[in-house]
Amino acid sequence: MLKNKIYSYLSREIIKNFITILLTFTAIAWTVRSVNFLDLMIEDGYSAIIYFKYTLLNITTILTRFVPLSFLLSLIISIAKFERQQELLILWTTGLNKMKIVNVFFLVAILIMLAQIILGLIINPFFLNKSRSLLRETEMIQANSILKSSDFSDSFEGVTFYIDRKESNGRLINIFIKDTAGTLNTIITEAGKSASTTIFANEGIIKNNKLFLFDGTIQTLGKNKKIKNIYFKKNELSINNLNNRTIKQTKIQETSSRVLFQCLRSKTEKNIRNCSFKKNNKEVTEAVLRRIGMPLYIPLITIMASFLLIHRKEKKYNYIKKYIVFSFAFVVLIFAEIFLKYTGVSLMHSYLYLLTPLVLFLIFYFLLAKNSIYEKVI
Questions:
Q1: What is the DSSP string of 252-303?
Q2: Which residues, 6+ apart, have CB-to-CB distance to 258 below 8 Å?
Q3: How many CB atoms lie within 10 A of CB 38?
Q4: Reported pTM
């Protein structure tokens, strides 16, 4: 009963530190990424509500990336705390086996590993796909935030705007619009025959997602290379006809794991549906192994951090051991990230990436058990 309470206490401390560190890293990284996402409002014209929803849906992905490093730091900080408060010394003097403590760390690591796999395989692709769908299904674009004074704006596909001056009341002065995609042709006579359209207007204003132009000219270049000019006192353009340049196609990291597994099997099965990444098999392999392979390194760094439990009085500079252990474990995580980039080169690289943490774990576990026995003899 007492041992169970000890194990429960150690686990709670590690998990508490892990959650604190993970949320801190996530909050900092999410803030930085949110600043980068400001282009959705400034350059692409999405509303503030869409911006906040999009950034919130990206939190789980950021959180997942910091899981291994956060758990490594929580282990080292917790062990250092236990040692500083003489808690480990009390456990050793009562005859508690160190490998049992290591096994407790390992069980916590397995729980964290499973949580990261669930995040990577199911939760992250779901939320990322939701965020992309949010941009894809949003029709209302805040064009007023895109158009700026004395600036060419090509945020819309096939359409370029230039505004000489933008007044505080929203009035636009000296407007130039170049349409090469035929987006504005729906409002122009004989538009279907037009290959290119240029619009000049002295003034304009945006209301109700429509652009009202005053005193201007519509110049069309037909497919027969003849130019036709149309003069107007007032004209109206629907902003809804314009599409911004935001990527709306689903990316690999936003695709469900089931579809990605189907893509990997498409080498031998020719009629696999729902796979639009057949030409990017390397990226698909990398995405899948990031979801299921990267978490396998958590037990490995756990067993490496557990070497901090081995302590010999005759050895000097024990206080720097935690920095050495952290450095080696951190290098392993960096190695895992770099190696991940080469997993799609061949099947052998993929298997090697999955087997490396398992083999190293067994080696380090054996060395740790051996050192634990040797320490008792000493």
A1: GGGS-HHHHHHHHHTTT-TT--S---GGGHHHHHHHHHHHHTGGGHHHHHHH
A2: none
A3: 11
A4: 0.77
276, 341 contact by CB (below 8 A):
no
Which residues fall within 8 angstroms of residue 249, CB to CB, at 6 or more apart?
none
The answer to whether the beta carbons of residues 330 and 337 sit under 8 Å apart is no
- Amino acid letter for position 127: F
| Relative orientation angle of helices 67-84 and 2-36, to the nearest 10 degrees | 140
Assigned token pair, 192: 């279907």
Token code pair at residue 296: 């396998």
Cα dist from 194 to 111, 180, 220, 242, 254, whole Å: 63, 10, 6, 17, 38
pLDDT tens figures, 109-137: 999 999 999 999 999 999 988 888 887 76
Residue among 325, 323, 282 at smallest CA distance from 304: 325
Residue 76 has a CB neighbour count (10 Å cut-off) of 20
C-alpha 265/C-alpha 92 separation (Å) is 52
CB under 8 Å to 317, separation ≥6 — which residues? Answer: none
User: 141, 38 in Cβ contact below 8 A?
Assistant: no
